[in-house]
Design brief:
The complex is a heterodimer of chains A (about 850) and B (about 220).
Chain A (H helix, E strand, L loop, with lengths): L1 H14 L1 H40 L4 E5 L6 E2 H8 L4 E14 L6 E6 L4 H4 L6 E2 L13 E3 L1 H7 L6 E6 L2 E10 L9 E5 H8 L4 E2 L1 E6 L5 H11 L4 E5 H44 L1 H10 L3 H38 L19 H28 L2 H7 L11 H18 L10 H29 L6 H12 L1 H39 L4 E4 L7 H8 L5 E12 L8 E6 L25 E5 H7 L6 E6 L2 E11 L8 E5 H6 L8 E6 L4 H15 L2 E4 H15 L1 H28 L1 H9 L4 H43 L9 H27 L3 H6 L3
Chain B lengths: L1 E8 L9 E8 L4 E5 L6 H8 L7 E6 L4 E2 L5 H11 E4 L11 H11 L7 H11 L15 H13 L5 E5 L7 H18 L2 E5 L3 H5 L3 E6 L2 E2 L1
Parallel strand pairs in B: 3-8, 3-9, 6-7, 7-8
Antiparallel strand pairs in B: 1-2, 1-4, 4-5, 9-10
Classes of the chains: A alpha+beta (about 850), B alpha/beta (about 220).
The complex binds adenosine-5'-diphosphate and magnesium ion (MG).
The site of adenosine-5'-diphosphate has 12 residues of chain B, from helix 1.
Chain lengths: ~850, ~220
């Protein structure tokens, strides 16, 4: 039996080489994309974890301020150190400084030389042999080898470190031999860092190693309960989860693209196997008559599916590995997403995930082969032997019943869309998308019968009439040919709709959030006071200056922190600066008010009118939520508070960004004025137009991959149509030969077949467009809010979609021309003479 | 070898039953011709005997010890066909993607014989049916008469006890038809198998051991 199966598979590959190879390739592409995304992300996460380990060591727990502007008060250090469960408590001050006029700020880490070695071995300083005097305790500075290399300096060199107005001139005494190859770091003694950059009486973090026999969970619970609300205790597992939370949504989106490719692959297997079953129905019937066990008719088709899927998936793994290598070299570990800065991560494939992706590829091709296999099992032997393939082995269902299934599925999809995301992944929405595609495919025969059944009654020339009747009466072949186009066009259209909606929304949003002509950024560090005072002088060429300070709050140790933006805006009219999505509530007079971003609303469930308790300024503060604004920039949430409120709470306003309105007529002077400041302080200045162009170009670049995939999907769809049309020509050889014998000339046959292809493509594109709009709506209204926590209005770019449809239709007609050529090459006399 | 009793069959939507109480028996080694008008139900009867169609009532006992194929499920029917029945069809039905030798080997594969053991048997049969040297040819290059010889070799290769042939010469010219039929009868006799051959040819019928005529009233 096994030998027979092998004979049939080999024969199948020999006779249908193009279709088989294409199916294999599509499966390979799906597996490759999914696998490479997995590999890259795995490597990026590992890299991220390694970098974190260098800086942070491997403490059992860390105590830190929730507010990025805050610190851990020193008395707490004594308290923690005297806890009997604590073996070591190492204080750390971490800050960002600039070196001279270098633009990018660097990490400066102040360590306590007595407690640090045990906890943070990678930060251990080594004095250079040539160093004349003094060590770390005398104010020596130690740079990582990568940084030394980048600056082209050696021990003994003197550096000027800047942070806002604070500066420290220090000498490099040595390096950090255990730091990672790519880490750009400076290390100094904690007391010296504190003296120059603060904070007074506080440290950034306390890193803790517990005694070997202590119970981490119990200790954690006890200490967390006793900490003031402004501080948080995080344990090692929180870090891993936070890192994975960082890039989850981006990964999800890329994985959808991989799924699209896999789905198209499954569809191609479906089309290939269905036509293969139809073409060979007589052969299978013969084998059945000769005694082939019925289950083998099912298994054989599944096996053939697997024979496509397995090599496809294997090739996909190799391709995925190659892609991962190439992409990380080109774009780094975040695929241009901007979550993990910097280095090229090392790709290490492991067995289990590889096996998982292999299975996924096989499962996709088996899924594609399942329905053809079932049809093959259900073929009535005698009828198939005498008359060939029967598309509907059971009695055809009535019209009402046929409508029942799509209606039920549509209801199910609607229900699924109401469900929330499953740990950040919009799984239910994805299933709903698959259902929409299924409904489209299942609805195709209904629509064809409905439209063409009617049109067949029209008075038409013979070739057109025949074409109409064929499409109307052979719904299965039409369904297969059309479904390829339905699936590929729906997915393409939905992507186009989603991207266009997003782009339109981002464009409008940029208008709203960039009201000023010029922007000045101090990156992570506060702006120098000198600049700020200069701006307030009357001779400064600016009509208006709005300052803002950026910090962050860790509300949940397992999630990335939320941005805290202190802005100079009118507490009574925040809508002048923030793009609100709904009503703006008037806050109670005595209460500070914050306006939260959509992401903050989606992730933490905060809503307008609510009172939030925020861990700012070293304590917990009650604030009123005044409204929700749209923010496409900070995916993990943002909170805006006015400078007045922040100052009333006791906050120290140290701006790091400026929005500037030059005086009318003095734009040139304003530019020069700023240029001087930028040069002096290593700042960054940009016009709103430049920021806008840059933002949109980053947007377009990050969606470039999707365009390539869309094109691939359309090619596959059109090819699927060609394959099925060609197959149907062979299936109908006898009928075509009869037509020829009845006086159809070759031109009429060709016209008839091309018209048929055009009609099928038309139906496919129509349904594909309908499904595409539905899926586009699901992507914009459900998937995006669930995965990225932002919403946008739906925007259907009709012109692009219709142009795409027209181009596809033209390609489909060309493809059916190819099939029609085949028909005119049929050896008509021979076909008529034999019954096979 | 084959005993049919009380067989009744009426197709759905058909105005009348094809047969209501049909009885028939074929002894071991006997070759029976079945004649009758077109549409009378000859093919249906053959299909019932082969387990490809299920009668409304009656029993069909095949082989010794006898097995009632009507009572078997589909998998068991297929197994019984693979073991004990050989087929020849009017439309040849040779698999186009397998070579002549592979086509003939299919029933052996289905009966679980390893391909290594096929070669002598298929070679001998090819010689017997006059197709020596055709082993590696593709069916598309064969004539109708040659294809039907392949089909005959395939029907005999696994030494079935019962051969069913439905108008085996219906698609051939009279001269070729005569040759092919003579070959079929000769081979069946040589293997000592029983056979039921549907035919329209008086000449064919007369070369068989017995002639049965199917009429609306039953077998005569
Ligand atoms: N599957 C079927 N469904 C309905 N009627 C059938 C079916 N198969 C055969 N028939 C009818 O049964 C009758 C006998 O057919 P068949 O056995 O093929 O006749 P014969 O082989 O003697 O020419 C014919 O009238 C045919 O139309
Ligand atoms: Mg017949």
């Amino acid at each position: 039996m096994r030998i027979l199966a092998a004979w049939l598979i080999r024969a199948q590959f020999r006779t249908r080489r193009a279709a088989t190879l294409l199916s294999m390739l599509a499966i390979a592409l799906g597996v490759a994309l999914g696998y490479s995304i997995h590999l890259i992300n795995e490597a990026a996460l590992a890299d991220f974890a390694r970098a974190m380990k260098t800086v942070q060591g491997e403490p059992d727990a860390v105590i830190a301020a929730r507010d990025s502007a805050g610190g851990v008060p020193l008395p707490l250090l004594d308290e923690i150190s005297s806890d009997p469960a604590v073996l070591i408590a190492a204080p750390v001050i971490e800050t960002r400084v600039r070196i001279g006029s270098q633009r990018t700020p660097l990490r400066l880490i102040g360590i306590d030389v007595f407690s640090a070695p045990a906890l943070m071995p990678a930060l251990l300083p080594r004095d250079a042999e040539r160093a004349a005097t003094g060590g770390i305790l005398d104010g020596g500075l130690y740079a990582s080898p990568a940084l030394l290399g980048e600056l082209g300096l050696q021990a003994g060199a003197t550096l000027t470190l800047l942070r806002g107005d604070q500066r420290w001139v220090a000498t490099i005494r040595g390096d950090l031999p255990a730091a990672g190859r790519d880490d750009l770091l400076l290390v100094a003694d904690i007391a010296w860092v504190q003296e120059h950059f603060g904070p007074a009486d506080a440290v950034s973090e306390i890193r803790i190693r517990l005694a070997a026999d202590s119970d981490l969970a119990g200790w954690r619970e006890r200490v967390a309960a006793s900490l003031p609300p402004a501080l948080l205790l995080r344990v090692a597992e929180d870090d891993g989860e936070r890192a994975s939370n960082l890039s989850r949504a981006y990964r999800v989106n890329l994985n959808v693209l991989a799924l699209v490719a896999l789905l198209t692959g499954a569809f191609l297997v479906f089309a290939t196997q269905l036509t293969a079953v139809a073409q060979r129905s007589t052969q299978f019937a013969l084998l059945g008559v000769l005694g082939l066990p019925p289950r083998m008719r099912l298994l054989q088709v599944l096996l053939e599916g697997l024979a496509i899927g397995l090599p496809g998936a294997l090739f996909g793994l190799v391709l995925g590995y190659a892609l991962a290598m190439a992409f990380t070299r080109l774009l780094g570990g975040d695929l241009g997403g901007g979550y993990f800065a910097g280095n090229v991560p090392v790709i290490v494939p492991r067995l289990l995930p590889a096996a998982g992706f292999l299975l996924l590829g096989c499962a996709a091709s088996l899924a594609g082969a399942a329905y053809p296999a079932w049809l093959n099992l259900r073929q009535p032997l005698v009828a198939a032997l005498n008359n060939g393939f029967t598309a509907h082995p059971q009695r055809a269902r009535e019209r009402g019943r046929q409508l029942l299934l799509p209606a039920a599925l549509a209801l199910l999809a609607g229900g699924l869309l109401q469900l929330p995301a499953l740990s950040g992944v919009p799984l239910a929405a994805y299933i709903a998308i698959a259902l929409v595609l299924f409904i489209g495919v299942a609805g195709a025969p209904l629509l064809t019968q409905e439209i063409f059944g009617r049109a067949a009654g029209l008075r038409l020339p013979a070739p057109q009439r025949i074409a109409l009747q064929n499409v109307a009466q052979a719904p299965l072949m039409a369904q297969v040919a059309a479904s390829g186009l339905i699936v590929s066009f729906a997915l393409t259209a939905s992507m186009v709709i989603m991207v266009s909606s997003f782009r339109v929304a981002v464009d409008q949003w940029l208008d709203h959030v960039l009201p000023a002509p010029l922007y000045l950024r101090g990156k992570a560090s506060p702006l120098p006071q000198e600049l700020l005072t200069a701006l307030e002088r009357p001779e400064a060429p600016f009509l208006r200056v709005e300052r803002s300070a950026h910090g962050s709050l860790t509300l949940d140790p397992r999630r990335p922190p939320v941005a805290l933006l202190v802005r100079e805006l009118d507490r009574d009219d925040p809508a002048a600066r923030l793009p609100f999505t709904g009503a703006v509530l008037v806050p109670p007079a005595e209460m500070p008010v914050v306006w939260i971003s959509e992401a903050m609303h989606e992730i933490y469930g905060s809503r307008p009118g609510q009172t939030l308790r925020l861990p700012v300024l070293g304590r917990e503060v009650e604030v009123f939520v005044g409204g929700i604004w749209r923010d496409y920039a900070r995916q993990f949430g943002a909170i805006v508070i006015s400078r007045e409120d922040h100052q009333r709470l006791g906050g120290d306003f140290r701006p790091n960004d400026l929005a500037l309105w030059p005086r009318p007529g003095q734009e040139g002077a304003a530019g020069d004025w700023l240029a001087a400041q930028v040069a002096a302080h290593g700042l960054e200045v940009a016009s709103s137009g430049a920021i806008r162009r840059l933002s949109l170009s980053i947007f377009d670049k990050s969606f470039a991959v999707t365009y390539a995939l869309e094109a691939a999907a359309m090619v596959i769809g059109v090819f699927g149509l060609a394959v099925t049309l060609t197959a149907s020509v062979w299936l109908r050889a006898r009928e075509l030969a009869t037509l020829a014998a009845l006086g159809f000339d070759q031109r009429m046959l060709r016209h008839s077949l091309m018209l048929e292809g055009a009609l099928i493509a038309g139906i496919g594109l129509l349904l594909g467009l309908a499904c595409g709009i539905a899926i586009g709506a699901v992507l914009t209204h459900v998937v995006n809010p669930q995965a990225f926590h932002w919403r946008m209005p739906l925007d259907v770019p009709w012109l692009a979609l219709l142009a795409g449809a027209a181009a596809t239709l033209a390609a489909a007609i060309l493809a059916s021309r190819q099939a029609a050529r085949q028909a005119t090459r049929l050896p008509l006399a021979q076909v008529l003479a034999s019954s096979q | 070898m084959l005993t049919v009793t009380g067989l009744a069959r009426r197709h759905r939507q058909a105005s009348r039953a094809l047969f209501t109480d049909l009885a028939l028996s074929v002894a071991a080694g006997e070759i029976v011709a079945l004649v009758g008008e077109s549409g009378i139900g000859k093919s249906t009867l053959l299909n019932c005997i082969a387990g490809l169609d299920t009668p409304d009532s009656g029993s069909i006992a095949i082989g010794s010890p006898a097995v009632d194929i009507v009572r078997l499920d589909e998998a068991a029917r297929a197994a019984l066909r693979a073991r004990s029945i050989g087929f020849v069809f009017q439309a040849f039905h040779v698999l186009p993607t397998l070579t002549v030798a592979q086509n003939i080997g299919v029933p052996l594969l289905l009966a679980g014989v390893l391909p290594a053991e096929h070669a002598p048997r298929t070679q001998a049969l090819l010689d017997d049916v006059g197709l020596a040297g055709f082993a590696d040819r593709w069916p598309a290059s064969l004539s109708g008469g040659e294809l039907q010889r392949v089909a005959i070799a395939r029907a005999l290769v696994h030494r079935p006890r019962l051969i069913l042939a439905d108008e085996p010469t219906g698609n051939l010219d009279p001269r070729t038809a005569g040759q092919v039929l003579a070959l079929l009868l000769e081979r069946v006799r040589e293997q000592g198998a029983s056979a039921l051959i549907v035919t329209h040819s008086r000449h064919v019928a007369e070369s068989c051991d017995r002639i049965l005529t199917l009429t609306p009233q039953g077998l005569e």
